[in-house]
Design a protein that fits this description.
The protein is mostly helical and 664 residues long. The protein contains 31 helices and two strands.
Length: 664
């Protein structure tokens, strides 16, 4: 009997549908220890690949023996480090220490730092120029807080590092984005590189960076650049690819060269979109201030880090609030700059009219700094105005622990018994070969043979390097946290999409949550729940809940109005419309939000290792303490692989579902 091509395709599709159930059955048999081969359940120790040792040897060879012909690799990287240190030291002198010119005998010239009054006035003037009175007041209060709380110098050190990191991230990421747009082959290489840069825990490459660039601001800048540049590159490439074709045709008709088309037509036309990338670079840079402080950056991050190590919760809260305020200020200003459109005028304006904002800022800084030479209150924050809120936070936490301890402990025990413990037990019983088969089946079902090979090989790598158990603990913690984040965030997103007033309030809250550095979430968690896996889960939920809310809200609001009108005319209730129309249509977008929630949860793994988890995050911390670069890199690669597998599977499913619904 002959079969047509359509019959053959249908049989193949039916076979693919059976792959996942079959793989799950095999994995369950292995987990129940009914499988005859023990090696399929627990990866044998003598099969483990010594990848970490090879990486450690390679990194140490780079540091000690590798040469570039004219110099060694270590000397070359240290030279780059000195170059990177220069702008940080310049800004540090301008904002904190001033400049001292001396010879062997004496100091012949000493210049003071910029006045704190003038520095406070600069962002206030910018917000006034943007026409945002509420933001202007908020910025003023924020800078007065860091001044009067006694954290002015630390804040200025952080700002100095942030300015240099953001500028480097914009330039480096922008050029990479342009290069990826112009050369498709380079884009194919950079895309997985960017995936690794954003998903690998920062602590994993701290040791190699320290070995190559030394302890200090340069190492912190390099680590921050690796983490913060990819979003700028991605947004630049995507924005360039979306330039209106008519603009390009007009520039070609005008006789522009390729470089003129790029730099005088395309890049200026995407400036508003590029500001979104700038905003992301700023936020990710601020997210790195505490990690950067560990390797020599100093500033507010160092204050938080020291307070956490000494369990001085009040001081940590003060510095954490300062970081939060700084993040919100920079986020709001950059967002307003992104919304601003250029104003074209045929009038011939003078130099002073065109640059009045810059001249005003320079004038205010100059006048206040000069006044500081005669009036001490202008040169530094008066001691009489400095206060501390440390005791307030400590007393508040003491009151909560004394009066609400039983309720908090009951909630913690309930979550541990009914969520954490069963999930952890299940994940630790997952056989490595069964997981490889299930992941391969899912990949084949969602995206074909290439995705199956990619996902299964990454899963096999995790087992082959001897980190299967710690990877399962990581997945257990992340899955439990993501489950709670979605359980809370998706209903909030649904309600936000249906009520405009609530939407406005929710957007303010999640925008604020998104600006907070990850370390800041540890402060209230440690205050209330001490250390342990439950505390880690709470911190991960708080940090990763934003995408679940945002994507659900956006997905439901993006549904076409005519698709809602039909069930309304049929007499469907609100609950029926949500359950049978809006949620199914918005499900691909919601799943992308779940995907982003997973990515953010994975990025918190190393941070949560500081509160007592025993997963891949702890492995990177151990590698840092033992100066073992290979061990940290392998653990980081495993985290990146988990993130990439999850991302590829969910994205493939989402794209497939959108095609089925006719949404693409």
């Amino acid at each position: 009997m002959a079969f047509s091509a359509s019959d053959t395709l249908a049989r193949i599709l039916d076979f693919r549908k059976l792959l996942v159930p079959a793989a799950l059955v095999v994995a369950c048999v292995m987990a129940l220890h009914q499988f005859p081969f023990a090696w399929a359940q627990i990866f044998p120790d003598h099969w483990v690949l010594p990848v970490s040792k090879y990486l450690t040897v390679f990194v140490k060879w780079l540091q000690e023996d590798a040469t570039l012909g004219f110099t060694t690799v270590k000397e070359f990287t240290r030279a780059i480090g000195h170059i990177l240190n220069a702008p940080v030291l310049l800004l540090k002198g301008l904002l904190v220490t001033g400049f001292k010119f001396e010879n062997t005998d004496s100091v012949w010239l000493q210049l003071p730092p910029l006045s704190w009054v003038g520095v406070t006035a600069v962002p206030v003037i910018i917000c006034y120029w943007l026409g945002k009175p509420r933001l202007t007041l908020f910025v003023l209060i924020s800078f007065l807080y860091v001044a009067f709380i006694g954290l002015w110098d630390s804040t200025m050190l952080t700002i100095a590092s942030v300015i240099v990191s953001v500028l480097l991230g914009i330039v480096f990421g922008g050029f990479l984005g342009i290069a990826a747009f112009k050369w498709r082959a380079l884009d194919n290489i950079l895309t997985p590189v960017f995936d690794f840069m954003q998903t690998m825990p920062v602590f994993a490459y701290l040791v190699p960076t320290l070995l190559m660039f030394g302890y200090g601001p340069a190492a912190a800048l390099v680590v921050t650049l690796i983490y913060a540049a990819p979003p700028m590159a991605r947004i630049t490439k995507i924005s360039l690819s979306q330039v209106v074709p008519e603009i390009l045709e007009y520039s070609e008709m005008a006789g522009c060269s390729r470089s003129q088309v790029m730099w005088r037509v395309m890049v200026p036309s995407i400036k508003p979109r590029l500001m979104v990338g700038v905003n992301q670079v700023i936020m990710l840079t601020l997210n790195m201030v505490i990690i950067g402080s560990i390797i020599g950056a100093g500033g507010l991050g160092f204050d938080v880090w020291q307070a956490l190590k000494a369990l001085r919760i009040g001081q940590g809260a003060e510095a954490g609030i300062a970081i939060t305020l700084l993040a919100i200020v920079l986020d709001r200003i950059s967002q307003e700059m992104a919304k601003r459109r250029p104003i074209h005028s045929d009038l011939q304006l003078s130099f002073f009219q065109r640059h009045w904002l810059l001249l005003t800022i320079v004038l205010v800084l100059g006048i206040t700094t000069i006044l500081g030479a005669f009036i001490p209150a202008f040169s530094s924050v008066p001691e009489s105005l400095i206060f501390s809120t440390g005791k307030f936070w400590d007393n508040g936490i003491d009151w909560i622990n004394i009066n609400l301890y039983e309720e908090i402990d009951a909630f913690r025990r309930f979550m541990f018994i009914y969520l954490l413990k069963p999930t952890k037990g299940f994940m630790l019983d997952v056989p490595w070969l069964g997981a490889v088969l299930v992941v391969a089946a899912l990949g084949w079902r969602m995206g074909g043979i290439k995705l199956a090979i990619l996902c299964s090989s990454m899963t096999f790598f995790i087992a082959a390097v001897g980190l299967w158990e710690k990877a399962m603990i990581s997945i257990y913690l992340v899955s439990a946290s993501v489950f709670l984040a979605c359980l809370i965030g998706i209903p909030i997103g649904i309600l936000s999409a249906r009520h405009d007033r609530l939407h406005h309030v929710v957007q303010i809250v999640i925008d604020t949550l998104q600006t907070l550095p990850s370390f800041v979430y540890l402060i209230p968690v440690i205050m209330l729940f001490s250390v342990g896996e439950f505390s880690a889960m709470v911190a991960v939920v708080l940090y990763s809940i934003v995408p679940a809310i945002r994507y659900t809200d956006h997905g439901i609001r993006s549904i076409r109005a005519d698709l809602i009108e039909a069930p309304v005319m049929m007499g469907c209730s609100r609950l029926q419309i949500i359950r049978r129309v809006q949620l199914p249509l918005a499900l691909p977008e919601i799943m992308l939000g779940v995907n982003q929630t997973l990515m953010m949860a994975l990025s918190m793994l190393v941070i949560t290792a500081l509160v007592g988890t025993r997963d891949l995050g702890q492995e990177t911390l151990i590698a840092l303490s033992k100066v073992d670069p290979g061990r940290g890199l392998v653990a980081g690669i495993c985290v990146a692989f988990i993130a990439i597998i999850t991302d590829r599977l969910i994205t493939a499913w989402s794209n497939k579902r959108k095609q089925e619904l006719g949404l693409t």
